[in-house]
């Protein structure tokens, strides 16, 4: 097996996550799909690190994880505060700025 | 570990057979988990599917010589991040099912088409790239993988690492600011709540407790009103929205009718009421007959059986 298959898998997971972001309405599930996309990127980075024989790819994946953790903390806080005011976790219900 | 290191050290075009088998088995699991994340209707199931995918990715990191990242993936992602998700699902998502109504017409189909097109483009791009030679991590991991990563983080990527610390602190403060609620008005005490309730005039008395007689006093069984119908007020709305309501009204009315007919038979009394199938047994002073009529498999109870 050529290790490039890992990159194909990462592309597939990223695509599924992107489609999920477009399809789902529940803000929490949309967030999980974003996490899935970030994880797919990490897999690609780790595979590239192996391809080039250096650890830089792994460092980038590590930073991605840190940024993802920060993003989850702030994003979930936003979801909770929106839920408090609008009593809904659906992305369609936060439409105050709609004409 | 040494086997894994050897496995990752082989800088060549092909991975070993063991890794190939592992890849093809676990890739299926990962893709199924990803699809489950997108397609499951309940947010909790999505979260569990995502956790499965993340664990599989951690195994892939191990297989590719990224031992440190594999452990971080399990500890940070499946440990911390997914638990955070589950907590928020518990806070928010219990009664919030995803609506199937489309706000934008045809959005779902368009999203699937976009996803397919994007995936085809991405995979075709990878297929066209010349990704044949894999150097392997043999030399990079020679002094140990965590040591190598530490060396890079604290030398070449030092500034990025420092900025990451600032980012994490900002995120923590931001989360606290966003979820903190300043109390503007006075906290309502019992007197205020009682006054408010009387002023509203909807339910001045306490709500009825759930449960039926002495047999069913679980919270998922609504109390019965005098005419045998379940009382909506006696149950948590959350349980009803989850579909966990257990309605025993028909059963109880049926048992009562049976008991009365037995009593009549035992005392040799002329039955006061006749219980006909398809008709609610006429309880003393009650009318109506919908509850029993809805259940066709109920055995017939004829009051005049013995006479």
Q: Could you give a quick summary of the protein structure above?
A:
The complex is a heterodimer of chains A (99) and B (307). Chain A has 99 residues and is mostly helical.
Characterization of the model:
- Chain A has helices at residues 4-23, 27-52, 56-86.
- Helices cover 78% and strands 0% of the residues of chain A.
- Chain B has 307 residues and is mostly helical.
- The N and C termini of chain B lie far apart (85 Å).
- In chain B, 24% of the residues are buried.
- The chains are: A mainly alpha (99), B mainly alpha (307).
- Chains A and B meet through helix 1, helix 2 and helix 3 of A and helix 2, helix 3, helix 4, helix 5 and helix 6 of B.
Mean pLDDT of chain A: 90
* Rough outline of chain B: elongated
What's the structural domain tally of chain A? 1
Quaternary status of these chains?
heterodimer
Query: H/E element string of chain A?
Result: HHH
Known CATH architecture of chain A: Orthogonal Bundle
How many distinct beta strands of chain B? Answer: 0
CATH class of chain A: Mainly Alpha
How many alpha or pi helices of chain A? Answer: 3
Strand content of chain B: under 5%
Tell how many strands the DSSP assignment of chain A holds: 0
Please identify the structural class of chain A as seen in this structure: mainly alpha
Strand proportion of chain A: under 5%
Keywords (chain A): Cell membrane, Membrane, NAD, Quinone, Translocase, Transmembrane, Transmembrane helix, Transport
Subcellular location (chain A): Cell membrane; Membrane
Protein name (chain A): NADH-quinone oxidoreductase subunit K
Main location (chain A): membrane
């Amino acid at each position: 097996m050529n290790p490039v298959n890992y990159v194909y898998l990462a592309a597939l997971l990223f695509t599924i996550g992107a489609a999920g972001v477009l399809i789902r309405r529940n803000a929490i599930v949309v967030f999980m799909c974003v996490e899935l996309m970030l994880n797919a990127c990490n897999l690609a980075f780790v595979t590239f690190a192996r391809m080039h024989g250096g650890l830089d790819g792994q460092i980038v994946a590590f930073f991605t994880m840190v940024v993802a953790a920060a993003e989850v903390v702030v994003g979930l806080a936003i979801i909770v505060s929106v839920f408090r005011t609008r009593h809904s976790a659906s992305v369609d219900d936060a439409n105050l700025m709609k004409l | 570990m040494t086997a894994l290191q050897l496995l990752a050290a082989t800088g060549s075009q092909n991975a070993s057979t063991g890794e190939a088998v592992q890849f093809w088995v676990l890739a299926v699991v990962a893709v199924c988990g990803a699809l489950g994340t997108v397609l499951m209707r309940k947010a909790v199931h999505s979260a569990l599917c995502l956790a499965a995918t993340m664990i599989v990715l951690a195994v892939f990191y191990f297989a590719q010589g990224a031992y440190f990242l594999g452990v971080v993936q399990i500890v940070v992602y499946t440990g911390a991040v997914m638990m955070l998700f589950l907590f928020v699902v518990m806070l928010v998502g219990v009664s919030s099912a995803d609506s199937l109504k489309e706000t934008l017409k045809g959005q779902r189909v368009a999203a699937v088409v976009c996803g397919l097109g994007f995936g085809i483009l991405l995979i075709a791009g990878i297929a066209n790239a010349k990704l044949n030679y894999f150097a392997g991590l043999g030399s990079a991991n020679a002094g140990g993988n965590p040591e190598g990563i530490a060396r890079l983080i604290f030398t070449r990527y030092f500034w990025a690492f420092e900025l990451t610390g600032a980012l994490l602190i900002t995120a923590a403060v931001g989360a606290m600011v966003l979820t903190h609620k300043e109390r503007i008005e006075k906290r309502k005490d019992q007197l205020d709540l009682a006054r408010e309730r009387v002023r509203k005039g909807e339910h001045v008395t306490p709500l009825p407790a759930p449960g039926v007689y002495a047999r069913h006093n679980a919270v998922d069984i609504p109390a019965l009103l005098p005419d045998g119908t379940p009382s909506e007020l006696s149950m948590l709305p959350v349980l009803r929205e989850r579909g966990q309501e257990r309605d025993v009204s028909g059963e109880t009315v049926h048992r009562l009718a049976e008991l009365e007919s037995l009593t009549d038979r035992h005392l040799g009394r002329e039955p006061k009421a006749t219980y006909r199938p398809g008709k609610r047994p006429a309880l003393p002073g009650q009318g109506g007959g919908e509850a029993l009529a809805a259940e066709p498999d109920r055995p017939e109870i004829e009051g005049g059986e013995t006479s």
